[in-house]
Amino acid sequence: MTTDAHSGSAEASIDEPLFIESEGHLDDVVAEHEVVLVDFYADWCGPCQMLEPVLEELADETAAVIAKIDVDEHQQLAEAYGVRGVPTLALFADGDQVEQYTGALPADRLRDLLEGYTNE
Q1: Where are the transmembrane segments (predicted)?
Q2: What is the separation of C-alpha 111 from the centre of its chain, rounded to a whole number of angstroms?
Q3: Is the pLDDT at 4 greater than 80, yes or no?
Q4: CA–CA separation, 74 vs 21, rounded Å?
Q5: CA 15 – CA 61 distance, rounded (Å)
Q6: Band of the pLDDT at 5, cuts 50, 70, 90?
Q7: Of these residues, 5, 16, 45, 63, which one is catalytic?
């Protein structure tokens, strides 16, 4: 699986999940985009795998950026955000973290959550 984590710019629409490479990269993405949903995941996590197609769909159909952080590769970053289990979803709006959930949320609940911040 290859993904160009740097594709797109602040003006471009990002219609697929963006893989975060470092804390600085996450900070840049959050600063550049109005709404960012961060998925802290692990490849071995069953619920994370079930959530993957939902996040891909949301990335394609919403204005929000979907960012993914592999907790095994970025343990310090996961720890900095208090991630205790995967998947953990952190929502950022206008540069600030506004929500955080542990566990896979249903597609309709995630869509409603994102719309609450993108349609203000």
Answers
A1: none
A2: 13
A3: no
A4: 8
A5: 7
A6: very low
A7: 45
| Domain boundaries 18-118, corresponding CATH code | 3.40.30.10
Cα 103 → chain centroid = 13
Q: Tell me, rounded to whole angstroms, the distance of Cα 20 from its chain centroid.
A: 9
Domain boundaries, the chain: 18-118
45 a catalytic residue = yes
pTM of the model: 0.87
Closest CA to 93 of 52, 36, 38, 12: 36
Residue type, 7: S
Q: CA-CA distance, 103 to 10, in Å (whole number)?
A: 29
Q: What confidence tens digit (pLDDT) does each residue in 29-64 have?
A: 999 999 999 999 999 999 999 999 999 999 999 999
Which residues have CB under 8 Å from 52's CB, separation 6+? 41
The residue from 26, 29, 38, 48 that is catalytic is: 48
48 is catalytic: yes
